[in-house]
Design a protein that fits this description.
With about 270 residues, this protein is an alpha/beta fold. About 40% of the residues lie in helices and about 15% in strands. α1 crosses α10 and α2 crosses α3. The longest helix has 22 residues.
């Protein structure tokens, strides 16, 4: 387990394996870097795989400040600079996609070779004319209140629903524990991510982009893939047919193959951009 210190004095932990082009992976809310252990094992023979514990999560610090998506994006920049990472393939799963889009919005693509969105929506809040999100405003507020007041019950209720196929009791136990360990401040991060509207960004992404969605996702509709393809026709969109919200866990072989193929394809683009 490695650590860097951010500009506001918070220690961010990460798991790292392999060498070569960096693949940086940001988990969803309530999840740690451990959720990407099948990518750390399956891709580290070809890439430098770095799975991050966002602030408030996993082994990272849990401060009383910085519970905003923009601060999480700055944490990524701090990580890239501290580790001198370049030509990064930056992947965000679920709410982690908001961290990725916020990073691009704030800091651009100088250190990035490609973007990967996994089961994430550019607008996680539903409203009239948009139904590709996670919840409406009332639902987002209810989720925030539930997470702040009774995180243990929320974890035990929500985490098992992420999967299309039943998971082992041992795996569910540590996954639930990841979410159940969150401090109340983490609820503010979830709410801030849900209310963001990044729909203007996919069409502006200036690096190769891969979007992965799941047919049986109970959290984020796969129809987001159609929106991204419409806004960015060059984007590669992949639908996983035997997964819920976690295709990297339920279909790891295909997921790793798709991600590796995409990452290799970004190298020419990255070289030309320099």
């Amino acid at each position: 387990m490695g650590q860097i210190e951010t500009g506001d004095g918070v220690r961010i932990s990460y798991r790292e394996r392999g060498s070569g082009q960096p693949l940086v992976m940001i988990p969803g809310w309530g999840a740690s870097a451990r959720w990407f252990e099948k990518q750390l094992a399956g891709l580290s023979d070809q890439f430098q795989v770095i799975a991050v514990d966002p602030r408030f999560h996993g082994e990272s610090d849990r401060p009383a400040h910085g519970a905003r998506v923009a601060r999480s994006a700055k944490d990524l920049l701090d990580l890239f600079e501290r580790l001198d990472l370049r030509d990064v393939v930056l992947m965000g799963w679920s709410i982690g996609a908001a961290h990725v889009l916020s990073y691009f919005d704030l800091f651009g693509s100088e250190r990035v070779a490609g973007y990967v969105i996994v089961c994430g929506s550019p607008k996680p809040m539903n409203e009239e004319g948009w139904s590709n999100g996670f919840a409406d405003l009332a639902g987002a507020g209810g989720f925030k209140a539930f997470a702040a007041a009774d995180i243990n019950t929320l974890a035990n209720t929500n985490v098992p629903t992420y999967f299309h196929t039943p998971q082992s009791e041992s795996d569910l136990a540590w996954m639930i524990a990841d979410t159940a360990s969150l401090p109340s401040a983490a609820a503010n991060v979830a709410f801030d991510c849900i209310v963001q509207d990044f729909r203007d960004l996919p069409g502006r992404l200036d690096r190769p982009t891969l979007a992965i969605y799941s047919e049986h996702d109970p959290v984020i509709p796969a129809a987001n893939g159609d929106f991204i393809r419409q806004e960015l026709p060059s984007a590669r969109v992949e639908i996983f047919h035997n997964s819920g919200h976690c295709p990297f866990w339920e279909e790891p072989e295909r997921f790793n193959e798709v991600l590796a193929d995409f990452a290799r394809s970004t190298r020419t683009t990255a070289s030309a951009a320099r």
